[in-house]
C-alpha cells in the first residue's frame, strides 16, 4: 500500500468530523433560538393574563359569546347573578397554601334557568361537608365576580386519579360529570367554570380567590444551556485543532 493510500483516510476523517461538528453546532444554536422565541411567547402570555385579571369584569353573556366563537376566555374577569344550589355542590381535591382540602364547585342558577358552576373557593378537609360551614351556604340571590376558566377537554394525565363521583371527590374538573352527577341537563349548563374572587364569605368559608396561574417560565435558562453547549463545543474543537497544529509543527 502506498503513502498516498494511507494519507487518503486521514484526510477524509477530519472532513467527516468537521461536518458532524457543524451539524451538532447548528442543532444546539437552533434549540437555543427556539427557547428564546418561546421566552418571548411566554412573557407575552403572562402579560396578557395579568391584563385580563386587572381588567374590569364583563357580563357573563360577553364571555359566552366569546366562547361560542372559539375565543380564549381563560382568566377573563366576569360577573354573574343567580341563586346557589347548595345541596348540589361538588368537591375538587386541592391544596391551598400548604393545607389539604377541597375547592367547592357550586351550581349557580341563573335567571333564565341555566346553570353556571362556580368555584367558590377552598375549604379545609374537615370542612368538606356543608353542615360544617353552614354560615357560608348563601341562600339569597348572589352576584359573583371571578375569572372564567375553560372546560377541560379530557383527563389531564393518566397519573391523575379517576374522579370518585360516589364520594363526591373530583381529582380533575370534568364539567359534564359534575353536572350529570347532580341531575343537571348538560345542555342547560354554561360550558365553562368561574373561579370566584376573594370577596369574603360568612365565617370565612369557602376562601375565595384561589385561582393559581402556574405557567413555568424557564425558557431563558434553557436558552443559556443550549447556547452554552454550543460555545463549549466551539472551544473544544478549537483547542483540538490548535493542539493538532502545534503537534504537526513540532514534527
UniProtKB/TrEMBL annotation:
- Organism annotation: Rhizobium pisi
Name the family.
Belongs to the SURF1 family.
* InterPro entries attached to this UniProt entry: Surf1/Shy1, Surf1/Surf4
Q: Which Pfam families match?
A: SURF1
Topology relative to the membrane: Multi-pass membrane protein
Which stretches are transmembrane?
12-34, 224-242
Q: Provide the alphabetized UniProt keywords.
A: Cell membrane, Membrane, Transmembrane, Transmembrane helix
Q: Which GO terms describe its cellular component?
A: plasma membrane
Q: Which domain of life is it from?
A: Bacteria
Does the record bear Coiled coil in its keywords?
no
Q: Does the keyword Transferase apply?
A: no
Task: Give the protein name, as stated in the record.
Answer: SURF1-like protein
Intracellular or extracellular location(s): Cell membrane; Membrane
Q: Write down the CDD domains for this protein, in alphabetical order.
A: SURF1 (cd06662)
PANTHER family given in the database record: SURFEIT LOCUS PROTEIN, SURFEIT LOCUS PROTEIN 1
